[in-house]
Amino acid sequence: MSPVSHGSLLIICFKDPPTRFPETVPQTGAEKGVYRCRDAEFWTCGFFPGSLYCLLERVRKYPAASLPSLSDRSEDSQGKFTEDTRAVYNHDILISHLTDLCRKWSEPLHAMSFRKDTHDIGFIIQPALQRDWELFGNKRSLDSILNAAESLAARFDARVGAIRSWDRFSNANHNINSMDDDFLVIIDSLCSKQFSSLYFDRWLTNSILDLDLLFYAGNYLHSERLLSIASTHATTLLSTHLRPESGLNGDKRYSTCHVVNFSPSNKGKVKQKLTAQGYSDNSTWARGQAWAIMGYAQTYSWTKKQEFLDAAKGLADYFIQRMESSPVIVEQQGRGRYVPLWDFDAPITHTGANGDQGPLRDVSAGMIAANGMLILYGHIAGMGELDAAKRYLNYALNITKDTVDFAYNRDEMRLRICQQDGVTKMESCEATSGHRFDAILEKSTSNFNGNHADRAWDHGLVYADYYFLELGNRLLDMGLR
């Protein structure tokens, strides 16, 4: 048997693909350790197939890092399998089974590429289908990406200079529902997914994002319209969603506002700034800050405009500043400082589901921010500013190490290759800990806003796992193991 470090992901994979997709994993209660699923139309549906494709990409490109026992094919003097040959044989079977799983789980995504009722189409389409196109040259997946880009572009309004995020928003304090007088844009709109590009390396080093969907398709189609929409949206958010903050050395730093409501009928003027998932309208919601770091770092990848690089640096510097200035209570036995609080301005002490008290974290914010910092590292190192670049690399690694030490669930399981009725099969064994937990990482907080009716915190989260896997692939691409 060969160990697979993220086998918990695969527990659910060996079942037939449902019409519902994994999202959260409770850490307490009757459903502890088991994925809660959402309907396929929900915005997070692309991350589980994307996670499978991350694993497939890693096993194909970096087999030694994925299964350390692998080495070159060889036979003994009698022509029989040696352990090395058997490992390679098992590796080939693993690739075959993973490819099959990826295709099955991504199949429902193609039909969603025509949806114009959501700005999250990049999150839905790109994590899986972009990899399918770039790893296998599957033209159907490329067509779905291009269709999705056109669907997203249809939500752009030139009067506002932005893409509409939500059609409506309501909670205990707000009821915003006019398509004529309201135009909601969220900071998340800068990002869609994290992916290291293969096919488009002739143009750029990496590709990501909600805007990345437009940049990606725009470059492929040579469409100035799509490229202009993406760049205009990013430019608008520089002035509406970023808040200048004082830097430690007088440098420019930025916090972020989560939601801005514009008035399309009044020259696109800002009507209101608020939060939907953060602590308060004026607080810094950690995941929103992380989306902005990654979003502007990648927008710079495509445009090479200095203002986007400056924004990404200022956002990352403020994220780092808030982690470093958090009170000592965030550390437990020397761990946890770089596992960010869910909101940097929320009360620190929180009573958990088990009655324990401590800081409420959001691991997903850390994983997204770490990916953004790695992108920044690549850009700045490419300019020859190695000391400045190394700072972002070090913090990305600090976040990663702290996350593994603090939030990695260690219920590793094993996969077994076996023959049954002449058919080679792969099956999962029990988790080594004896305690099933379907996610890789714990301690995410999807929404702890006090006005939200369905709050969720201290759980595994499918996109925290996705960005964790993508981060590992990105580090391998950079030669950092």
Can you characterise this structure?
- The protein is of the alpha+beta class.
- The chain has a single domain (2-330, 341-477), classed as Glycosyltransferase.
- The chain is built from 13 helices and 19 strands.
- The protein has helices at residues 8-11, 47-61, 63-66, 83-106, 121-136, 139-153, 210-221, 224-240, 286-303, 306-324, 363-382, 386-407, 462-477, and strands spanning 2-4, 20-26, 36-39, 156-157, 162-163, 169-170, 175-176, 183-186, 194-195, 207-208, 242-246, 252-256, 259-263, 269-274, 349-351, 357-359, 413-420, 423-428, 459-461.
- β17 (413-420) and β18 (423-428) form a beta hairpin.
- The relative contact order is 0.13.
- Mean pLDDT is 87; it is low at 1-7, 69-85 and 193-209.
- InterPro entries: 6-hairpin_glycosidase_sf (IPR008928), 6hp_glycosidase-like_sf (IPR012341), UG_Glycosaminoglycan_Hydrolase (IPR052369).
- Keywords: Hydrolase.
- Belongs to the glycosyl hydrolase 88 family.
